[in-house]
Structure prediction request, 561 residues.
Amino acid sequence: MSTLSDTITAVLIRSLWQDAVVGLALWIALCASRRRSPNVRYVLSCAALAIMVLWPALSSLDLVHPRSITPASHASPAVPMPIDASTILGDGWRSSASPAHVPANVTASLERWALPIWIAGVVLFSLRAFTGGAQAVVLARRSTPADAALLAQIAAVARRMGITRRVHAAISERTPGAATLGAWRPLILVPSAALIGLTPQQLEAVLAHELAHIRRHDYVVNVAQVLVETLGFYHPAIWWASKQISTERELCCDDLALRGHGDPLSYAQALTALARLPLAVPRPALGAATGSLLHRVQRVLGVGGDVRQSFPWSVLLSLSFILAAGAIHPEWIRTHAVARDARLSGFVYDPFGGLVAGIPLSVEAGPFQPSYFDTTTTDRSGHFVFEHLPSGSFVLTAPQSDFVRPLRIQVEDGASVERDIHMEIDTLADEIIVCATCPSEPDSYELPASLAEEFRRDREAAAADPIRGVAPLGGWEFDRPHVYPYPPSVAPSLEGIAVVEGHIGSDGSPLGLHVVSSPHDDLSAAALAIVQEQRWEPARVQGVSIDVPLRMRVRFMRTRQ
Prediction:
C-alpha cells in the first residue's frame, strides 16, 4: 500500500482502542463534574470528541515522513539472515533476503479490509448528512417569512441576551419543534402550531432558547459533530461523546435562555408543550429537545438533583474487544500501539577490522509492519546513524557492498540501539555449462552504445568505493552464461556436475584449485582446466587487492534442457 493508505489504516486501527480510552476518560470526567455547570461538561465532551479525532491522526503522522507505528517488546542482537539459493544471480555474488511469509489471519484481514470498509461507510454516512442538510434547506425554502410582530419579539429577546447580529425568522408548518438553521445568517424556524398553542410568555421562552443557540454558535459545533460522526461512524465512543455534547448543549441553552427570559415556570411549560408532538427536525437543525425532558424541566424549576451519567457500555465493549485481540495476537496489538522514535547506529568494519567510510546502508521494515525504508552512508569515521527510526523488526543491508550480509535487527519503542557491522569475505559462487550438442557461442559480445556508456560511468563511479567485490574481467555486463563444448578427452556420454574450489588471487586469477566432488575423473580434469582459464577483476579493500574464496560448479550435459 501507499504511504497515505498505510497512514489511514493506522489511524483507523489505533482509533479502535484510543477512542475507547478517551470515551472512558470522558465518562469519569463527567461523573466528577456532575455538580458543576453544564458548560463544564459541554467543554469536556467537545474536548473528548476532538481528542478522539486528533489522537489517532497525530500519532500516525510518523508514516508520512515516513515513519512506522510498530513497537517491539525488546531489542535483540543482530542475526545474519540466511540467503535463499533462489535469489543468487548469475554471478553468484549479489543476493537478497526477503522476509518470511506471514500466514493469513484475522488481524491481517482486518488491516487489509479496514480502509475499503471505512471508505464505504463514509460514503453512506455522508449521504445521511447530505440528506439531513437537504431537508433543512427544503424546510427553510418552504417556510413563510415571519410577521413584524414576531420579528420585533425576537429582536427584543435578542437585545436582552446581548445578541447584536440580525436574526431571521420564518413560520413552518412542517416542523413540530422550533429549530435554528445556518451559521452566518441564522434562521429560526417557528412551528405554526406554537403560535397558536403557546402563550406569549411561553413563545418568548422558546425564542430565547433558540437565540441561545445562536449566541453560542452551536450550529458550527453541530456541523462538526456530523462530520466527526461521518468519519468515525464505526466507533461507539464517538457516537456516545457526540450524544453527550448534544445533551449538555441543551442544558447550557436552557440556562442562558432563563437569564434572557426570566420566568422558569413559563419556560418549563413551553418545554412540555413542544414535547407533546413527535420531533421530526433534521439533524443539521438545532433546537429540537434532546436529553431527558423530565430532567430539563426539573432543572428549570430548581427541583432536579445532580446529573447522573449512564455508564457507556458500548465504549467498554469496544475496549474489551481490543484487549481480547491483544491477548489472542500480542504482536498485532504491539504493532498498533503508540510508537516513539528509536535510533539505530553503529560502525562498519572492513574484513580486516578497519573502519570504512562512504558505505551506503539501508533499513527496511520486516513482517507485521507498515512499509518503511530509509538510507544513510557511513561518515569519515565509519559511523552510521538512522534517526527517527520507528520501532519494530527491520532488515539492515548494504546494497552496494558484496561483503555485508543482511542483518535482522529488532529495536524497542524509543530505544537507542547500537549495532556494528563487520564485513565478511564471502565465497564467490558461479556455474559453467559444458554441453555436447549445444550450438557454439560467439567469442565476443557487442553491447549497445547506450548501455556500454552507462556501464562505463558506473565503473568509474565505483572506482572510488572503499570496498569492491570481485567482477568478471571486463565487468558483469560482459559476463554471460558460459557454454563450453565437450573437450576431446571427455566422452559425450559422461554427464554430471564437478565442483571446483579454490580462491581468486589478488591478480584476478584462480589459485589453489581442487575438485571437491565429481562423478568421473575425466570430468574432474576437464573442470579444473576450464576454471583455470577464467579471469576476474580482484576484490579490493581500502585499495588493497585481496583473495576471495571461489566455488565453481561445472555442469556437463549432452544437451541443454
